[in-house]
Amino acid sequence: MSSFRIAILGAGPIGSTLGSKWTKAGHNVAFGVKDPASERAQRLREESSASVFIGSPAESLAKGDIVLLATPGHTVEELVRTHAQLLDHKLIIDATNQLTKGKTAAEGKWSAQEPLNSLATLQTYAPHAQIYRAFNSYAWEAFADPIYQGIQADLFYCGPEGDTQTIIEQLIGEISLHPVWLGGLDQIEVVDNILRLWATLALFQDKGRNNIAFKVLHR
Fold it and tell me: What are the Pyrroline-5-carboxylate reductase catalytic N-terminal domain coordinates in residue numbering (predicted)?
């Protein structure tokens, strides 16, 4: 397996969970956070391997060829606009959702902008980037433990075919999820609808954030 330099923008549960697994898989991980001196950043330092870098978004992006966007959705446009030059020409994974944090689950209905993804923003400010939509359709608990009664959960994603797709599938596999490609970026709404289905079951029907994931069955 190849080793990569990965910049993770955001140090919340999703970014930190994926970053921890990718570090254990042998990748060089750099977290970019708004305030590297914050309590959350300090806690991440305590929980992370000594090899993990934690600094500003610009410092993180300078250390990564692959970028995971794992910040709250409302912060994405400013973040991408500010660091456009550092993001362009990189492989970017959009794991963000344009949701009001906590409100969707608390009210039992969607509290979201449309679209859920940040594709238009990324294409505007980083037109030469290779963009994928992945890791947005489950809560972080599924990434921490993706095995359900002995069955490996599927992770649905979209983005361009080719060498970068092979990289994405390796990274998904290293989280112990099975990658399922739904097509190019023209299928991004299909990927986003997986989140809508997941939330309907896990949140709106109270089946539990850590209890629901999906599997494609073949015969």
Answer: 5-97
CA gap 98, 146 in Å, rounded: 24
pLDDT in tens, the chain (219 residues): 789 999 999 989 999 999 999 999 999 999 999 888 787 778 887 877 778 899 999 999 999 999 999 999 899 999 999 999 999 999 999 999 987 665 666 666 666 567 899 999 999 999 999 999 999 999 999 999 999 999 999 999 999 999 999 999 999 999 999 999 999 999 999 999 999 999 999 988 999 999 999 999 999
- CA-to-CA separations, 104 to 32, 73, 150, 204, in angstroms, rounded: 27, 13, 30, 9
Residue 43, token pair as written in the block: 């806690």
| CATH superfamily of domain region 5-204 | NAD(P)-binding Rossmann-like Domain (3.40.50.720)
pTM of the model: 0.92
